[in-house]
């Protein structure tokens, strides 16, 4: 019963929100000018941020990652439940 009541209340809320009177949008409200001004302002601010120097004033150097650790193949044996099995295993350290 509780689930039915919650479901009915949810449906009523959604239906009520769809019925509310909203004014129709008009092209002469200046919305297009606001969007254009926002895009132009964002481009100017983004360009200024992108062309600015780092906070400490020096060039930025990125270190190369270290070379991968040396690896080798080794034959190891293990018990698989039925008997000993020997397989090649790649060992890296």
From TrEMBL:
Residues 1-27 form the signal peptide. It comes from the Bacteria. Keywords: Membrane, Signal, Transmembrane, Transmembrane helix. The chain crosses the membrane at residues 31-50. This is Uncharacterized protein. The lineage of its organism: Bacteria, Pseudomonadati, Pseudomonadota, Alphaproteobacteria, Hyphomicrobiales.
